[in-house]
Design a protein that fits this description.
Layout (H helix, E strand, L loop, with lengths): L11 E4 L6 H17 L2 E5 L8 H16 L3 E5 L3 H14 L12 H19 L1
Parallel strand pairs: 1-2, 2-3
Length: about 130
């Protein structure tokens, strides 16, 4: 008996929240939960998020733990370096014997995002 099996193609969902708090934060959290359920990988582009409070950092850390536990990839783009370190610290604190299997900080892409943000800010002043 031959069983035909179609190749499994990994899929990635990209989320671009405007904020991690308030009603926008709740909408983002729901979208993130759904993305982690449906996709093999999630990219969270934080370009439009101006500030991340402690609750937002917890949300990002919890999503890292959840993605790791479910064998999925998650990447945060546009995350400030200090916030990146804090998220990694919170992940390690919640699971001390755990190592992160993948990075959440992409320096080359971060530089691109910084230039893009600066360009948009300068265009707004004109």
């Amino acid at each position: 008996m031959l069983i035909s099996q179609e190749p499994i193609t990994p899929n990635t969902i990209i989320l671009q929240p405007e904020s991690l708090d308030g009603s926008s934060g709740r909408i983002f959290q729901q979208a993130l939960e759904q993305a982690l359920t449906q996709a093999s990988g999630v990219i969270v582009d934080l370009l439009w998020v101006e500030t991340i409070d402690s609750e937002g950092l917890n949300l990002l850390a919890q999503s890292m733990v959840r993605s790791r536990d479910s064998g999925k990839d998650i990447t945060f783009l546009g995350l400030e370096y200090d916030d990146n370190l804090e998220v990694e610290h919170r992940v390690k604190s919640s699971s001390p014997n755990t190592t992160l299997g993948h990075g959440i900080f992409a320096p080359d892409f971060e530089a691109f995002l910084d230039r893009h943000r600066d360009l948009k800010a300068s265009e707004a002043l004109i």
